[in-house]
Specification:
Urease, subunit C, domain 1, TIM Barrel, five-stranded mixed beta sheet, five-stranded parallel beta sheet, 21 strands
């Protein structure tokens, strides 16, 4: 039986049933093996049976499959980063090597909608739908990170265009005043929902969030940077917010949102920020907002998997991807989540240390 320590130093597990290959371009879904003696965050033993990169029931594993002893290492699902810009900063391989299995790209030129995401699974919004020369076309996003429309009819057509091109979610920027008017925003939201797409808003202030709610937004792309009043907090109950605390701040606002039943989702705004893999600063700020270790893991795994419709991610059970992180030390500080000893995505070792 091969141990995690052997993986850390040898970078490979070889057996007659398959191989865990540490090279970045290893084929996805190549591995078949049994992982024993891992433990979840509560210390409960976990055994994982992996066939061709997917988790299966143990009796489905070939008898000849190699075995790996995790030696009591803590195991969690690989993370989802729910706010990235991989066209702005093309670091998908580095992000994957640091523990990210899925990324939600929330602004990119329309051509990126057909780009492969390997080694990550990437769900993309394409360009933000915005007013003529509105944000982000008036600043960092001039090279196609926004797409213009002028009224409700043309904005509805933009939703159709993006969904036809492959957009998995629809995103808009919302300011206190200016930009798209309320009728156009509502038309975008209605069309996104009719086409079964989440409606995401860049809305950083009290007024912008109120406008987002009137438009039917499902997800806030950032924690707002200003405090929200009680009425707005209550109106957001049942919605979701992507953290991005290291990019914009908002620790106390996130604490209030969580207390009012808003789902917190881990996201870094990679591209605006520059840390690939799991971001220790984002983790530390989530902890400062009141999330304990288990809540942070949930915000980066099960919650985004449910929100974005990721049936193969977010948990470690049969039918899911063999995408997980191993930590040889007991996790006593949430920021330790940023330093996995082994990263496995779809049964393939992407990084060890």
């Amino acid at each position: 039986m091969v141990s995690v320590r052997h993986l850390v130093f040898a970078l490979a597990l070889v057996g007659c049933g398959g191989a865990l290959d540490a090279t970045p371009d290893a084929p996805v879904g190549s591995a078949t093996f049994l992982l024993t003696n891992a433990r979840d965050l509560e210390g409960t033993p976990i055994t994982l049976a992996v066939v061709d990169g997917s988790l299966v029931a143990r009796d489905e594993l070939p008898p000849s499959a190699p075995r790996m002893d995790a030696e009591g290492a803590t195991i969690v699902p690989a993370f989802v980063d729910a706010h990235v810009h991989l066209s702005y900063d093309p670091v998908a391989a580095e992000h994957a090597a640091g523990g990210i299995a899925v990324a939600i790209d929330l602004a990119a030129p329309i051509e990126a909608l057909t780009s492969p995401g390997d080694p990550l699974l990437v769900l993309r919004s394409g360009p933000m739908i915005t007013s003529p020369n509105g944000y982000p076309l008036d600043s960092w996003g001039r090279a196609g990170f926004g797409i213009e429309c002028a009224d409700a009819s043309s904005c509805t057509a933009r939703v159709d265009q993006l969904v036809t091109a492959g957009a998995a979610v629809i995103k808009v920027p919302i300011e206190d005043v200016g930009g798209l008017d309320d009728a156009s925003l509502a038309a975008i939201g209605a069309r996104a929902h009719a086409l079964h797409r989440l409606f995401v808003a860049h809305a950083l202030t009290q007024m912008a969030v109120m406008r987002a709610l009137r438009a039917g937004v499902d997800v806030l792309a950032h924690t707002p940077v200003t405090a929200l009043d009680e009425t707005t907090l209550e109106a957001l109950r049942g919605h979701a917010v992507i953290s991005t605390l290291s990019a914009f701040g908002g620790v106390e606002t996130l604490r209030a949102l969580r207390a009012h039943g808003v789902d917190v989702v881990y996201g870094t705004d990679l591209g605006n920020t520059r840390t690939t893999g799991i971001d220790p600063d984002e983790i530390a700020l989530l902890a400062a907002a009141g999330l304990d270790l288990a809540a942070i893991v949930e915000a980066a795994t099960a919650t985004p998997a449910r929100l974005f419709g990721l049936p193969r991610h977010g948990e470690l059970s049969p039918g899911h991807a063999a995408s997980f992180l191993l930590y040889r030390r007991a996790l006593t500080d949430p920021t330790q989540l940023a330093s996995p000893d082994v990263v496995v995505l779809d049964g393939v070792v992407r990084q060890t240390r």
